[in-house]
Amino acid sequence: MPVLWAAALAVLALGVAWALVFSPPDWQQGETVRIMYVHVPMAWLAMGGYTGLAILSVMSLIWRHPLADLTARELSPVGAAATALCLATGSLWGKPMWGTWWVWDARLTSVLVLFFLWLGHAALVRAFDDPERGARAGAILALVGFVNVPIVKFSVDWWNTLHQPASVTRMGAPAMHVDILYPLLVCTLGYTLLFAAVVLARTRAAVMERRVRALQLARARREDATPA
């Protein structure tokens, strides 16, 4: 945990300073391009995090691994936060570029659906008194909702949308200058490390909480069994 937190904060500090101070403005977007240094990493984390949630759900349903259930439970609020930041920064970028805060095109709508899937999973796993039932229900929802991830990814290719197509992950050379691409990649690495650190910290806290509850329950049973 200390190494992960230190790496996340160091890389993120470097990336943010590079992006906000030393990288040049875009020739078309001007200073507005700096929103991209948060928006793009959050979009990748929203999709990548949900892919991780689907993998944890498979581990939960097939192998019944309790740590997979616990990690999925703690992952969904963090994934929802990343998706919310993606939507918010996208709206901030869309207003000066498109002249509107929101359009119901395929990319934006599918990301909004992804946000609701994150919220739905976070609520569903906590809606049952029995944690195992909640974990099973949340795993099924996560796997069904995973069909939305490729829709988010390829929506700009499948439909005519206002959102620009892939600029970094397309085949061949990225469609942006290295002075913008490199700080974007450093920011992405920093946000990814921070995302992992937060999820790991939440999972560790949940494991410790479960152990404390088990010890309290065992102590209460021993006290009940002890004759007066």
Provide a descriptive summary of the structure in words.
Residues 9-163 form the Cytochrome c assembly protein domain. Helices cover 77% and strands 0% of the residues. It has 228 residues and is an all-alpha fold.
Counting copies of identical and different chains, the oligomeric state is single chain
Helix content bin: over 70%
The number of E-state strands comes to: 0
Largest sheet: none
Question: Spans with pLDDT under 50 lasting ≥5 residues?
Answer: none
Tell me the structural class: mainly alpha
What is the CATH fold-level name?
Four Helix Bundle (Hemerythrin (Met), subunit A)
Domains, number: 1
Number of helices: 7
Q: What is the helix/strand order?
A: HHHHHHH
CATH class: Mainly Alpha
Mean pLDDT: 89
The whole-angstrom Rg is 21 Å
Straight-line N-to-C gap: 46 Å
Percent of residues in β-strands: under 5%
CATH architecture: Up-down Bundle
Shape: globular
SSE diagram, text form:
Layout (H helix, E strand, L loop, with lengths): L1 H21 L13 H28 L2 H33 L7 H19 L6 H15 L2 H11 L19 H48 L3
Helix pairs in contact: 1-7, 2-3, 2-4, 2-5, 2-7, 3-4, 3-5, 3-7, 4-5, 4-6
